[in-house]
Each structure stands twice: as C-alpha cells, then as structure tokens.
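Amino acid chain
________________
===
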Amino acid sequence: MSPAQEQAARTLLETASLRRTRPRLLVLQSLLQASYPVTQEQIAEQLGDKSPNKVTIYRTLEALCTAGVVHKAFLQDRTWHFEPAHNCSEHQCHPHFTCIACGQTTCLMDMQVPAVKSTHNGYTIHRQRMQLEGLCPNCSC
C-alpha cells in the first residue's frame, strides 16, 4: 500500500472516531486501492499473508459500514460488494455496471441518476442503489 493510501485510511478512521486497529487499516487500504466494489474474499486475497481471518474482515466491514466509512454497494450471487463511502451521498450511491459476459463491475461515477422521491405509497426510502447489467465495451464487439 502506498503511504498516501495508508494516510487516507488513518484519516477516515479518525474522522469516524474509530480506533486505528491493524485490521481496520488493512481493510480500508484494500478498499481504497480497488477501483471497483470488492467482496470480503477479494479483500482477503488482496491482503495475502497480511490478511486477518475472514471473521475479523467481516466484523471490520460491518463496523466500517455502521460508521459510514464504507458501504455495501450491491448484492450479487448472495455476496455483498463493499466500497469506500466517500464517492456517494448518504442517500444515494453512484450506479454500478456489471458485464454479463466477463463479470467485470465498473463504477459509473460520472452518470447522473435522479433520486426517487423519499416517500411513495407509504414506503419510506432511506437509500437508493443502482446496479446496471449488460455488455461492457470489450464484450460488445
């Protein structure tokens, strides 16, 4: 991990008033390094020998989500994908595109999606996520 990513992870933990434990720093650095939402298993793979056990990674991700530092971007094949929350607002996450041919997921941060009204027929909406599926430019050819 780069010194900049380590400092960014420390700052995020400090801002959220969370203790800077080794697992939190490692998980956050892994998420900051990724260019797309990742699973708990992908974090463990990326960290390699330095990786905490899977239960610790899960608890760390839950604590980071509760603090608003990380969020669950989307659920695919019954597996949550996580990413740092700084690219999204409290109520709306940027869209994600998953290619149905190669499986690659891309963050579409430059795409604007109108927010749904906060109430609709008695439903109270707390957060809006958008998962788009189709063919990426490489697979469309």
